[in-house]
Amino acid sequence: MHKIEKWQKKVIWFVSIVLGVAIFVVAGILFINSPLFDDYVVVAVMVTIFLPTLVNIIDAHWKNDVNAHLPDFFRAIVQAQQTGMTLP
Description:
The protein has one domain (6-82). It contains two helices and no strands. It has helices spanning 6-30, 36-82. The longest helix has 47 residues, at 36-82.
């Protein structure tokens, strides 16, 4: 898993919102009196929400993996200190 930086999350949110609004506007212009308008609105909402949600899930998995391995890291530091190694 990869860590996703805060600026990357902001860029993904911005791009997703712009794409969702663009799909909604195009659907409003071309299909306002058509039954397809509802479908395009649903697609616009899905495009707006799907990618940021996926990015948050990936980042949450990364954080959970780090938290799960933190005790092993501390244990390794303690063992290294007990053998006489300096921290640096």
